Amino acid sequence: xxxxxxxxxxxxxxxxxxxxxxxxxxxxxxxxxxxxxxxxxxxxxxxxxxxxxxxxxxxxxxxxxxxxxxxxxxxxxxxxxxxxxxxxxxxxxxxxxxxxxxxxxxxxxxxxxxxxxxxxxxxxxxxxxxxxxxxxxxxxxxxxxxxxxxxxxxxxxxxxxxxxxxxxxxxxxxxxxxxxxxxxxxxxxxxxxxxxxxxxxxxxxxxxxxxxxxxxxxxxxxxxxxxxxxxxxxxxxxxxxxxxxxxxxxxxxxxxxxxxxxxxxxxxxxxxxxxxxxxxxxxxxxxxxxxxxxxxxxxxxxxxxxxxxxxxxxx
Length: 315
What we know:
Blueprint: H1 7-19, H2 22-29, H3 33-47, E1 52-55, E2 58-61, H4 63-89, E3 95-101, H5 106-120, E4 124-130, H6 133-141, E5 147-152, E6 160-174, H7 175-185, E7 201-205, H8 210-222, E8 227-232, H9 235-244, E9 249-252, H10 257-262, E10 265-269, E11 276-283, H11 291-310
Parallel strand pairs: 3-4, 3-5, 7-8
Antiparallel strand pairs: 1-2, 5-11, 6-9, 6-10, 6-11
Helix pairs in contact: 1-2, 1-3, 1-4, 2-3, 5-11
């Protein structure tokens, strides 16, 4: 039986409280569900009271747990910072850094990060999660991940941001089909007006999504309707539909850099200034900014500049 309070037990308690589920907490911590349940039960015995109400959807905090949570989080953060400082003075930076990446940057950036961090800071282990900007922003705001590379079109929210680069959005499609459709519509070379998007069958991200919101807002303001033939929750699906069908999408260059370079896809720029995307590095305001996270955060802009310099990505 546990007879003393440990940081491990507190960490498990905080994760269960944040997720509202023993199963989800176990998955995030990489522990067996039975281990998490035993730790929670031991902590409840130690403090002499219940921490959670069990229900069909998971668990809910008791009033006691609510009071403890407010003290447990800064205690754990302080312990993390203390250990981080000690390791830094010993000349050894280590720890797990969880990074959320949007699909457009994930393949190139995750591979380059593994090589760069593995060489410079072998004690750091990267954990990469992929998702659209809204998902990553939510996980940052909930303190589930340390850093995120996301797309922005409007003012920043609660998290800390650093702009990495800005890039135009383009109408993208399979090369021969895009050329064929432009000929049918009598569209000459050069940027397309946003209103012309109404004349192209589009496969777009499932809302809510930043690009989708931007396009829907522009269509509403300019009084035209988008012809959406499919909502897709995956960039892999978007690319496959464009490859197999007379369908197009609105994407930044780096999202289809390989397909454009191979000649499979082609793109037409959109004329409106509003059709530009800022790619930013965000840090969670709810997680301690460890030395390991700081080193990774310094490395990401360096790698982005390298991609822009060698033409892998474009402004």
